[in-house]
Amino acid sequence: MAYVINEKCINELDGSCVDVCPVDCIYEGLTKRYINPNECIECAACLTECPVSAIMAPKDIMDPTWRDDSAAFFALPLPGRDEALGDPGGSIGLGSVGVDTTLVTSLADK
């Protein structure tokens, strides 16, 4: 199980977590970042760098909502896209995806 970024990251795109990730598995949506569960090596480098404490270690995930949402960001076609993002192998070359999951979009609008 990978690390997960929760709702505290919505509208907070500081990027400190991205800078320390050794495998470049943290991707940027429109208003939130997402950790690719297939690329995360669970090193915990991102955990202490998050300025809003939005990153959760696998052992601390009690509610599967954000784990499932993170997986959906990569496994399902995002709004306005025909194909799933999948496992691009790193976010640096990809840049901002420019769209969030339906859950995040519904919360960002509040």
TrEMBL record:
Residue stretches in coiled coil: none
Free-text cofactor note: Binds 1 [3Fe-4S] cluster.
Domain of life of the organism encoding this protein: Bacteria
SUPFAM superfamilies, sorted: 4Fe-4S ferredoxins
Keyword entries, A-Z: 3Fe-4S, 4Fe-4S, Electron transport, Iron, Iron-sulfur, Metal-binding, Transport
Domain annotation 4Fe-4S ferredoxin-type: ranges: 1-26, 31-60
Residue ranges of the TM segments: none
Needed cofactors: [4Fe-4S] cluster; [3Fe-4S] cluster
Stated name of the protein: Ferredoxin
Species for this entry: Nocardia tengchongensis
